[in-house]
Design goal:
Blueprint lengths: L2 H9 L4 H10 L1 H23 L4 H26 L1
Helix pairs in contact: 1-2, 1-3, 2-3, 3-4
Length: 80
């Protein structure tokens, strides 16, 4: 299983079936999930390295939040 899919399934367990289906059938959703995981991983690296550049850390925090919203929006749109 892809790392991005594994991560979002843990992050959003209530949507596991929908996410798995969407991840396997929708390339845009798959890329969105991969981007989200990359953003989350980068944010974690920033935190672990205790970077003094808070702007960089905040940018990835905001990016992760926006990507998370897009993932949930994709799921909601699919249900309609």
């Amino acid at each position: 299983m892809e790392k991005a899919l594994e991560y979002i399934l843990r992050k959003f367990p209530d949507h596991s079936t929908s996410m798995s289906d969407l991840y396997c059938t929708d390339e845009d959703f798959r890329i969105l999930c991969e981007d989200y995981l990359t953003s989350v991983n980068t944010l974690e690296e920033c935190r672990l390295k205790v970077l003094h550049d808070r702007t960089f850390e905040n940018e990835f925090l905001q990016l992760s939040i926006e990507l998370e919203k897009e993932i949930l929006h994709s799921l909601r749109s699919r249900r309609k």
